[in-house]
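Batch manifest, entry 17 of 40.
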Amino acid sequence: MKTTALALVSVLFASSAFAADAIDTIEPPIPTVTGTPDAAGVDTFSWNGVYFGFNGGYAGGKFKNSLTASDLVTNESLTNTTSVSHNGFVGGVQAGYNWQFDNVVAGIEADFQGSSLKRDKIILENDGASLALKNRLDWYGTARGRVGYTVSPTAMIYATGGAAYGKVKTAYELSDGVDTEGVSWSKNKVGYTVGGGTEIGLTDEISFKTEYLYTDLGKAKMFDYSDADLGESLRGENKLQFHTIRAGINYKF
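Output type: structure tokens
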């Protein structure tokens, strides 16, 4: 009996030792890693660089025309001022460069626009005769700075402002109901523009923007006639201000 018990104890110890050896020799599998970590979650979008694009929109504002007749002898004068609302479509191209500093984006941009802004108005009528005033903005452009703030890696809001220039045409036409005669003048004008907008990156190269601009091309003398024999002079001036809402696409190189 004693021998049997000793044998049983030996078997139990031998089994425990075997089990311990088995546990000690079992190691967890080592995962095999192949390839490189997935970079899909890494944002690579940047506003830095040169871009070029197209835009289109709608504009409206006021032409302000004044006619001043003066007596060269008495130095007396009489001025008639006419304000005419105008509107039309605009469209063109833009190009610029951005520098990004963390959440701040600074840049420069220039654009050139074709314009259909125009307005005709009868300013005098008498006994079948009429005097019509015609104004038109043929084209304009701007050269501006931009400062923006990124609300997300691919979206920013910005303010912009700078110089503006354009070609304005003014005409007066006199009609007796049958025949029409008129005179016209064209003038290249320089002023300023201010505004703001938003821009969203659609891909690493393409972005979509919406923009508002207020433009003032200032006052310009359209003509100034004097007749020393009659002792009279006639001067015409024009002032143009307008608002523009437009959208555009930019491609970044």
